[in-house]
Amino acid sequence: MTKKLNILFLCGWYPSKVFPTNGDFIQRHAEAVSTKHDISVIHIVSDKNCKKNIETTFIEINDVKTHIAYVKQTKNPILKLIWFWKSYLVLLKKINQFDVVHLNEIFPFGLFALHLKWFYKKPFIITEHFTGYLEASKLKISFFEKLISKRIVKKAYAIATVSNYLTKNMQNLGFKGNFVTVPNVVDTDLFLPKKKEHKTLKLVHVSSLKDNHKNISGMLRVAKLLEDKLDYFEWNFIGNNGDDYQEYLRTLDLKKGKISFIEHQTQKELVSNLQNASVCISFSNYETFGIVITEAIACGTPVIATNTGIAIDFKELDFCKVIPIKNEELLFNEILNSKNTFANIDTDVMHTFIKQQYNKEVVLDKFSLLYYQSLKK
């Protein structure tokens, strides 16, 4: 089966005026799928600026018909549930037709997917990114949420996790279903290699800069260690203004290295930072995927990453050095040795590796297969 389908994306996360970058990886999935199928998105989010209980919007972005409902913020969970359900029904009426539901985030939006399966006879697949299912994240999922989530997964045709690592963690939690791996999308037409001409060690880290997740303080301590060995180096932390770390930086009193914090960047802005870096560092305590790792490799920039997310599958690659989490001494040594470790890497090979596994066409084909199979069941 190769016909064009109408796919409804149900999204617990998605970029909106409240959270402009939240779930941008889901948006890239939707845009990849839209190159072959008709895509409509439903997203609902609380908004403290709402004057009405529910406000709906519509915009078509890169061929993705995007329906977002903004719900007045409330501390009353029952009222919130009612408003979200009403919003869902209002947005659903705006969707002309759909063949398959593509759920993004099992709970609570999976309840909408069950409704569509039971009352509209529409099959659904799931894409999951949530770090809360990782044992290392230490996030607590209530008994009720876990119980409902397991039911949702069981009723889905397939659950497409973004990494084998996430699949194993979910299975360890007792989730049972048709697990497959469909990765995040890398725009390999945008993230391209560029000849590196600098002699100075230039490190880059890109993330939300949340310390309990990304271990920013650990990297700053490693930067302090680098002062004893290097006359000068640069380390860019991209994700926000770094105000939370300024006091800590003052206590570290770095004199040789230049530490810069840069606000969140668009993908186009990010490319040059990755291209110009000597090494990309990911020192996370946990990850379900780690999109910047693949983007850096696509740019011909080698990576040092902790043993999390997609990096686990890259252990044997000569352009990705994988180390244990929280091991600052090993990170320090790997950075010092990086010039020798990555001396013979081929940037064209790196780019081709990412293109063959993570570009839009690859992800589209994987999702399309799941859509067609779900309709045959």
List the helices and strands and how they pair.
Blueprint: E1 6-11, H1 24-33, E2 38-47, E3 54-61, E4 64-72, H2 77-93, E5 100-104, H3 110-120, E6 124-128, H4 143-155, E7 158-161, H5 164-172, E8 179-181, E9 201-206, H6 211-214, H7 216-226, E10 233-239, H8 246-252, E11 257-263, H9 267-275, E12 279-282, H10 291-298, E13 303-306, E14 320-323, H11 328-341, H12 347-358, H13 360-376
Helix pairs in contact: 1-13, 3-4, 7-11, 10-12, 12-13
Number of strands: 14
The biggest beta sheet reads: 8 strands, mixed
User: Radius of gyration from the CA trace?
Assistant: 22 Å
What number is the mean pLDDT? Answer: 96
| pLDDT < 50 runs, ≥5 residues | none
Distance between the termini: 13 Å
User: What percent of the residues sit in helical stretches (DSSP H or I)?
Assistant: 25-40%
Estimated structural class = alpha/beta
- Strand order, sheet with most strands: 3-4-2-1-5-6-7-8
Please count the helical segments. Answer: 13
Name the beta content range. 15-25%
Order of helices and strands: EHEEEHEHEHEHEEHHEHEHEHEEHHH
Q: Can you put this structure into words, describing what you see?
A:
This protein is 38% helix and 22% strand. The protein has 13 helices and 14 strands. It has helices at 24-33, 77-93, 110-120, 143-155, 164-172, 211-214, 216-226, 246-252, 267-275, 291-298, 328-341, 347-358, 360-376; strands at residues 6-11, 38-47, 54-61, 64-72, 100-104, 124-128, 158-161, 179-181, 201-206, 233-239, 257-263, 279-282, 303-306, 320-323.
